[in-house]
Amino acid sequence: MTTSSPDAPRQRGNYAKGVARRQEILDRAIEVFAQRGAQRTSLRAIAQEVGVTHAALTHYFGSLEELLVAVYTESQRRSDGEEAEAPDATPAEAMRVSAKRNREIPGMVQLYSTLVATALEENHPAAQDFATERFARLRADLTERVRNLQSAGRLRADVEAHLVAALVIAASDGLQTQWLLEPSLDHEAALGMLDLLLSGPVAPELPSATDR
Q1: What is the Cα gyration radius of the chain?
Q2: Distant-in-sequence contacts of 147-152, Cβ < 8 A, 24+ apart
Q3: 73 or 15, which is more confident?
Q4: pTM
Q5: Alpha carbon of 75 to those of 111, 119, 211: distances in Å?
Q6: Which sequence spans correspond to the domains of the chain?
Q7: Per CATH, the architecture of 10-200 is what?
Q8: CA geometry: angle 207, 208, 210, nearest 5 deg
Q9: Of the ranges 50-59, 61-70, 84-93, 104-113, which one carries the lowest mean pLDDT score?
């Protein structure tokens, strides 16, 4: 007969409290970053805004970079659950759902842009892993979406699905950056132009050199 250690319930209780405390800090950090964006600052200054000690923030998140990744990832997880795009939406339509949602949280858009820019620098593994994995997942999801729409005759079939996916992501991110700098830009309408291009008639083939 095996007996459990008397310390086991206590350890489980401490673990549960730790998880709850980390989530509590993350909830408050999301509120802060949604309002202020990702202005360059220290972990100590953020701890003061969130209302915890610097030691607590370091204990649960390790570094400023890891905190930024956790904040953005959790914020997106919640948003995706609240408003998901239709399964038969075009890639541009799917991105327009995100664009519409992001207009309400410019601080998170700025945070995302900061993470992607940081990922291009050396010695930033958390940001690099975040950006690389996100782009790979988005490309895979959108590629499958494009192929399904091509099979249904809703998108032109003479374009490479994986290249369309990469193009839509690049357009969405680029337009998002322009919108941060110029809020009057109609991000959603610009993405809609992609649908017109992708659903338009097949471009005629150019004559070969031997036909000229």
Answers
A1: 22
A2: 148/88, 149/88, 149/90, 152/88
A3: 73
A4: 0.78
A5: 11, 19, 57
A6: 10-200
A7: Orthogonal Bundle (1.10)
A8: 120
A9: 84-93
